[in-house]
Specification:
- It comes from Colletotrichum spinosum.
- The protein is of the alpha/beta class.
- The chain has a single domain, classed as TIM Barrel (Alpha-Beta Barrel), CATH 3.20.20.70.
- Helix 3 links the parallel strand 3 and strand 4.
- Helix 2 packs parallel to helix 3, helix 3 packs parallel to helix 4 and helix 7 packs antiparallel against helix 8.
- Strands 1-2-3-4-5-6-7 form a seven-stranded parallel β-sheet.
- It is built from eight helices and seven strands.
């Protein structure tokens, strides 16, 4: 939090939410919320929580649990069990049904690897984004063209974010509002610095740092969340 990050995500793809009971998920959320608010920030830092599940009913329930635990936003991944049998129309209906029932704003999570390979198109995302309670998207698909289209055409105030440290700088170039990345758990200051340099027009320095971060992100990708947690433990004692 002291590294300059703008928010915290719990139960993302690097978390263990899929292996936790509903009660354990809520307990972890409350722990994160208590930690954030004990820091005494004058501005309440966003706490975004993964609430995706394999049914509309369970996703809505997780969103409501998150609200009760003090969460500001729900990060919702597309159900994956039926894969491509879910048409684009059904995808839109799913997100809109969740947003209708959720007491907190919803952020779309597009991560094909975690959704049976299903990759939402920019057209589908923009259709989903018409709902007033859907306020952003995290694109872990790595498609900067899609990110550019969404950032350009989404409703005013819509948060369009990349989902990997591989393309922080590239995302800034095409209009992203930010980045939600697991590597920020390990190197938050460097990730933030790339965005600062891009905003200041210091492209050469930002490019150099982006290359360093991309190498680190590739190692994190190869080792998965196990490697990420090991790295956090290692640097925590440095």
């Amino acid at each position: 939090m002291n590294a300059g990050v703008a928010g915290i995500v719990v139960h993302g793809s690097n978390g263990k939410a899929v292996h936790l009971s509903r009660e354990d998920r809520s307990a972890m959320i409350r722990c994160a919320a208590d930690t954030i608010y004990q820091e005494g920030h004058e501005t309440r830092m966003p706490l975004i929580v993964g609430c995706g599940a394999q049914s509309t009913r369970e996703t809505i329930q997780l969103c409501r649990d998150a609200f009760k635990s003090g969460v500001s936003h729900a990060l919702v991944l597309l159900p994956s069990y039926c894969g491509d049998l879910i048409t684009d129309e059904k995808v839109v209906q799913y997100f809109h049904a969740v947003a209708d029932a959720s007491l907190i704003p919803v952020v779309i999570y597009n991560f094909p690897t975690a959704a049976a390979g299903r990759d939402l198109s920019s057209d589908t995302i923009l259709h989903i984004a018409k709902h007033p309670n859907i306020v952003g998207v995290k694109l872990t698909c790595g498609n900067t063209g899609k990110l550019a289209r969404v950032a350009d055409k989404a409703p005013a105030g819509f948060f369009a974010a990349g989902g990997s440290a591989d393309f922080i700088l590239q995302g800034q170039v095409v209009g992203a509002n930010g980045m939600i990345t697991g590597l920020a758990n390990i190197a938050p200051r460097t990730c933030v610095r790339i965005m600062q340099l891009a905003a200041e027009g210091k492209v050469a320095e930002a490019t150099r740092l982006q290359a360093v971060v991309a190498r680190g992100d590739w190692i994190a990708f190869q080792t998965g969340f196990v490697g990420g947690k090991a790295a956090i433990g290692y640097f925590e004692h440095k």
